[in-house]
Design goal:
The chain has about 425 residues and is of the alpha+beta class. The chain has helices at about 30-45, 60-65, 70-75, 95-100, 145-165, 180-195, 200-210, 220-225, 240-255, 300, 320-325, 345-360, 375-385, 395-400, 420-430, and strands at about 20, 25, 50, 55, 80, 85-90, 110-120, 135-140, 170-175, 260, 275-280, 290-295, 310-315, 340-345, 365-370, 390-395, 405-410, 415-420. The mean pLDDT is about 90.
């Protein structure tokens, strides 16, 4: 009988790291460490965490992201139960807005600064940087029309990657205008590409009918050549759009942020208006996007709100961050290490040490111990392999004397300590704060 394997496009995060599905996954402790860095930055920027279910109504995602996007038409994990249709969430912005509306959060505070971190699912072809289950993190400022909110989200995004010491990334920005200017621009694109329709791929011909802006994101070389002479969105923005975008870039200029205004930049989801941005790094190869986002003032209306709820945010792939760190040679390699490894020699000592282990854990120490009845040499080897800072040794002689031996694994110093003083001494040596 063959053994089961993880589903293609997914991978396990093991305590010591692994390589599967072509992915070099760091240890689970490194994931936690990286998540802690992200949380620390987002907390510093005054964002509060929100957690939404991984299953959502199918209609929510279709209306929120756009019925003609690749995500909705090709990439959703969808299923039904009775008359209800569900999806595994492919992104988290629409669920966040759903939660804001469902719980009438605008009545408690005018502006919400929210962040999230959790798994998402897309049924796309697995490749480096693209997985069927992936971890997404991001933040949203909900309730503000101000260009300062756009700039603050961009600065928050950059601060996350700076906190990891990552460099060499490139920030692209653009304005997609308001719905009226976008419609006028879309009509101009349709007119322009109509005479080139025979040279377009089938997917691009469909996009021309459904959402011409997505043609700007084509990867086909002959179609990219056509974009050189295509109309530019900047020529279709109204005065309010231009003023908004100029204020956003002025905030970035004032902070010394390097960026490129890219008229070809569009986001893959239909809910964006005005500001759009993307962070890229070449070390990721063809799939070079680290993070991206923009403003989506009309999404709440699409999800049933009677009034528009202005909002701006960014989203990023956690795995892409790890790949970029690995490519930069600064990948995380954190392993969880016990503060103390308790070595017992003999059944009586094992019985005593079991209680000692629990007491030390209750005092705040991370403690490991042998559960196989191995020799002292084998236990010492295991403690060393695990990277324990200290070992406690208890055998028949120690039981008779009422004292154990504490050994510093780094310096080799040994202390003989009365049993009732072992835990306080370990806390002193490891500098573990007193628990309440």
């Amino acid at each position: 009988m063959s053994t089961f394997r993880s589903i293609k496009g997914t991978f396990d995060v093991l305590p010591y790291g692994s390589r599967s599905e072509g992915v070099q996954s760091v240890s689970s402790a490194s994931w936690v460490a990286a998540e802690s860095v992200i949380r620390r930055v987002l907390n510093k920027f005054d964002f509060d965490e929100i957690r939404t279910p991984i299953i959502e109504p199918a209609e929510l995602i279709a209306r929120g992201i756009g019925e003609h996007t690749d995500i909705v038409t090709k990439e959703m994990f969808a299923f039904s139960r009775g008359d209800d249709n569900y999806v595994l969430r492919p992104e988290i912005t629409a669920p966040v807005i759903r939660a804001v509306l469902q719980h009438s959060m605008q009545q408690t505070r005018e502006v919400h600064r929210l962040f999230y971190m959790g798994p998402c699912f897309r049924a796309e072809r697995p490749q480096k940087g693209r997985y069927r289950q992936f971890q997404q993190f991001g933040c949203e400022i909900i309730g503000s029309l101000s260009p300062a909110a756009d700039a603050d989200v961009i600065l928050t995004m950059l601060a996350v990657y700076d906190a990891f010491g990552l460099s060499g990334y490139r920030l692209r920005v653009n304005s997609l205008g308001n719905p009226d200017s976008r419609k006028t621009y879309s009509d101009a694109l349709r007119t322009y590409f109509a005479s080139h329709k025979s040279t377009l791929s089938e997917a691009s011909r469909n996009r021309l009918n459904e959402n011409p802006l997505r043609l700007l994101d084509t990867k086909i070389e002959q179609e990219r050549a056509l974009l050189v002479s295509a109309p530019r969105i900047a020529d279709f923005l109204d005065d309010a759009d231009r003023e908004h975008f100029e204020e956003v870039t002025q905030y970035l200029d004032d902070r010394g942020v390097s960026y490129e205004i890219d008229p070809m930049l569009v986001r893959g989801l239909d809910y964006y208006t005005r500001t759009a941005f993307e962070l890229e790094i070449d070390t990721l190869g063809a799939q070079n996007a680290l993070a991206g986002g923009g403003r989506y003032d009309l999404l709440a209306r699409e999800l049933g709100s009677k009034t528009a709820v202005p909002a701006v945010g960014f989203a990023a792939g956690f795995e892409r961050l790890l790949l970029a760190l690995e490519a930069a040679g600064t990948g995380l390699n954190t392993l969880a290490k016990p503060d103390v490894y308790v070595i017992s020699l003999g059944p009586a000592a094992g019985q005593f040490c079991f209680g000692l282990v629990q007491d030390a854990r209750a005092a705040g120490l991370r403690v490991s111990f042998d559960v196989q009845g191995r020799s002292m040499k084998a236990q010492m080897r295991d403690a060393n392999k695990r990277g324990a800072g200290f070992v406690v040794i208890v055998g028949d002689n120690e039981l008779a004397s009422g004292s154990g031996v504490i050994k510093n694994m780094a310096g080799g110093e040994e202390f003989t300590v009365l049993f009732h003083q072992i835990v306080p001494k370990l806390k002193e040596l490891t500098d573990v704060p007193t628990t309440s």
